[in-house]
Design brief:
Blueprint (H helix, E strand, L loop, with lengths): L4 E5 L3 H12 L3 E5 L3 H20 L5 H9 L1 E4 L10 E4 L5 H12 L7 E4 L6 H5 L8 E6 L8 E6 L5 H13 L3 E6 L6 H17 L5 H12 L5 H8 L1 H15 L8 H8 L18
Parallel strand pairs: 1-2, 1-4, 2-3, 4-5, 5-6, 7-8
Antiparallel strand pairs: 6-7
The structure holds acetoacetyl-coenzyme A (CAA) and nicotinamide-adenine-dinucleotide.
Length: about 280
């Protein structure tokens, strides 16, 4: 089965980027958000990202318009009935994800493939509620999606090999590099990256260094493009907290436990770039 129409659930930080790269690769993309306002906000995010590329001379204004023309917002799940692949990128919450997969299953054609962009939930527990576990894989994109080459393709014990191969081919059609992963919480990158990001917060709480100095040290000392606190603000502190809770529940090791400061920041509404303030302030003024 060749993939022509792609559905994307969620148009937040990741759903917007996934919709953008699928449309840029020539796919017809339907995006489903939970309100018109959130769809418009996500569409604006896509437009801003494309405009960045126009500004850098990487994209012509006409191509930008063509990409945007292939992305359409829908509210009803039934509108996704013609999709060959649906990629879920909604909030990192298992109940919300399960609920949307159960509702979606009654609308999709039998050949449709389902994928989750989850950072830390295991794919199997989502696949088994989808009504089509053999046609369910993980497609874990990285933030910002238009810039990061890797997509982790997650095979479960029940994924069909044909669907896994289709997932690998789809990733290559986006101009990205697939890496096949086992279905363990965090797959490859987050299994290593989440403890690093959480340890940066713990190091700061222990007085090892200021937020700015820890970022500067990792950039200058290890050549990282972003220090850990800049990265945490970029990922989103709410999403990071959801991920840490899920991974700590899975592995029961301190290195995955959310530090008290992270919880306090989320409780205080300081979610990072997405809220205008996290470990740094992004208030334009
Ligand atoms: N969409 C959104 N933001 C973009 C973007 C795009 N297409 N391209 C660049 N950016 C952002 C940068 O964050 C930065 O934001 P501001 O302008 O508002 O400060 C700006 O645009 C800089 O753009 P540049 O292209 O000038 O910056 P750069 O060339 O130095 O590279 C970068 C930007 C590619 C994001 C680079 O900083 C980088 O690689 N950072 C590390 C990203 C990373 O580690 N991602 C993985 C996160 S973990 C994850 O995704 C898994 C999970 O499950 C949580
Ligand atoms: P986000 O908070 O920016 O966006 C989530 C979006 O999902 C919101 O716009 C919300 O309105 C929408 N949503 C919630 N329930 C929905 C539903 N039932 N139907 C449609 N839309 C719904 O979160 P995000 O950072 O984009 O993360 C989304 C997923 O991607 C999570 O599973 C996360 O773990 C994963 N992920 C995040 C990153 C990252 O760096 N933020 C990287 C890789 C993977």
């Amino acid at each position: 089965m060749d993939i022509q129409q792609v559905g994307v659930l969620g148009c937040g930080l990741m759903g917007a980027g996934i919709a953008e790269v699928c449309a840029a690769a020539g796919y017809d993309v339907l995006v489903r958000e939970v309100s018109d306002e959130l769809w418009e906000r996500g569409r604006a995010r896509i437009e801003k990202s494309l405009e960045k590329q126009v500004g850098k001379g990487l994209l012509s204004p006409n191509d930008k318009a063509s990409v945007l023309g292939r992305i359409h917002g829908v509210m009803e799940l039934g509108k996704l009935e013609g999709c060959d692949l649906v990629i879920e990128a909604i909030v990192e919450n298992i109940d919300d994800k399960r609920q949307v997969f159960v509702a979606l299953n009654e609308h999709l054609k039998s050949s449709a493939i389902l994928a989750s962009n989850t950072s830390s939930l295991t794919i199997t527990q989502l696949a088994m509620t989808s009504g089509r576990p053999d046609r369910f894989i993980g497609l874990h994109f990285f933030n910002p999606v238009p810039r990061m080459q890797l997509v982790e393709v997650v095979r479960t014990l029940v994924s069909s090999s044909e669907v896994v191969e289709q997932g690998m081919e789809f990733v290559r059609s986006l101009g990205k590099e697939p890496v096949e992963c086992r279905d363990n919480s965090g797959f490859i990158v987050n299994r290593l990256l989440v403890p690093y990001m959480l340890d940066a917060i713990r190091a700061h709480e222990e007085g090892v260094g200021s937020i700015e100095d820890i970022d500067k040290a990792m950039q200058l000392g290890c050549g990282y493009p972003m220090g850990p606190f800049t990265l945490l603000d970029f990922v989103g502190l709410d999403t990071t907290l959801y991920i840490a809770d899920i991974m700590f529940d899975e592995y029961r090791e301190k290195r995955f436990a959310p530090p008290p400061l992270l919880k306090q920041m989320v409780q205080a509404g300081r979610l990072g770039r997405k809220s205008g303030r996290g470990f740094y302030s992004y208030d334009k003024k």
